[in-house]
Design goal:
There is one protein chain. By secondary structure, this protein is an alpha/beta fold. Helices cover 32% and strands 24% of the residues. The protein has seven helices and twelve strands. The strands form two sheets. Strands 8-7-6-11-9-12-10 form a seven-stranded parallel sheet. Strand 3 and strand 4 form a beta hairpin.
């Protein structure tokens, strides 16, 4: 576990890497075989393997045919702990929601839950189907490989606002135009711990924002309203801003805890 793989190493998914040892043979996930073939990789090539559950390995490609790709594990690679960071995204435009998935996976979100807010119901091209979730998982896997992170987020939904608010734990922030606290302020910084602390949920509403009853329900459940910008942001932009800031804060808190230790 001395170094990360060279930049030239390409990353692929392989299931069931946890608990394996160097020298063991591992199979790439079936949907990755075509990617290996498209990259024109040949036996003997070094790869980086991940399973989306924290395991990362340097490996050597042993065999490749139309349906299977086998590797030999060479050495485990460092993998940081998952961030306790959860996103509530609004049911919204499908293509923009898929873009959102890519970006927040790169930033380290542990879960993405789609919430059907009142103003989500009128969106025709929305991510409600099983097909959308399959596409979202594909985008998440691609983003994880690109980013070098080790944890694939869990994708959930759609759920009602009542379900979302009722199940959250730890601190929660809602990006909202009526938020009096600006993101990055002292009150917000003190509302969440590091990775060893309670989870942090960040939420973005639909275009047009939450209704007054929805906003009141969130506040009564302990969700803090925060303002991201004096400008009106698209929901996917707001999601990237709040997830990026929260991830950076959690990582800073973890580094400070390590320094103190």
């Amino acid at each position: 576990m001395d170094t990360l793989p060279p930049v030239s190493y390409q990353t692929f998914f392989a299931d069931g890497l946890a608990g394996l040892q160097a020298g063991v043979r591992a199979e790439l996930a079936s949907d990755e075989v075509s990617h290996v073939r498209a990259a024109r990789l040949r036996p003997g090539r070094r790869l980086a393997l991940i399973d989306g559950a924290g395991s990362r390995w340097e490996a050597e490609l042993l065999a490749l045919d139309r349906r299977r790709a086998s590797c030999r594990l060479l050495a485990p690679l460092p993998s940081e702990p998952a961030l306790p960071l959860h996103l509530w995204a609004p049911v919204a435009n499908r293509d923009r929601s898929l873009w959102l998935v890519e970006k927040v996976v790169e930033l380290g979100a542990a879960t993405i839950t789609w919430v059907e807010w009142e103003r989500s119901r009128s969106v025709a091209d929305a991510g409600r189907s099983e097909g959308f979730l399959r596409r979202a998982e594909g985008r998440a896997r691609a983003a994880l490989k690109q980013s070098g992170r080790g944890w694939l987020p869990r994708l959930r939904g759609p759920v009602t606002p009542e379900e979302a608010v009722g199940r959250h734990e730890g601190a929660a922030w809602l990006a909202d135009a009526e938020g009096r606290q600006r993101l990055g302020g002292a009150i917000v910084r003190g509302s969440a711990g590091g990775r060893a602390g309670p989870p942090l949920t960040v939420a973005v509403g639909p275009e047009g924002g939450l209704t007054h009853p929805e906003r009141r329900r969130c506040v009564e459940a302990g969700v803090e309203l925060v303002s991201l910008s004096p400008a009106t942001l698209r929901f996917e932009t707001a999601a990237v801003v709040i997830v990026g800031w929260a991830a950076a804060m959690l990582e800073d808190d973890e580094n400070e805890a390590d320094d103190e230790g």
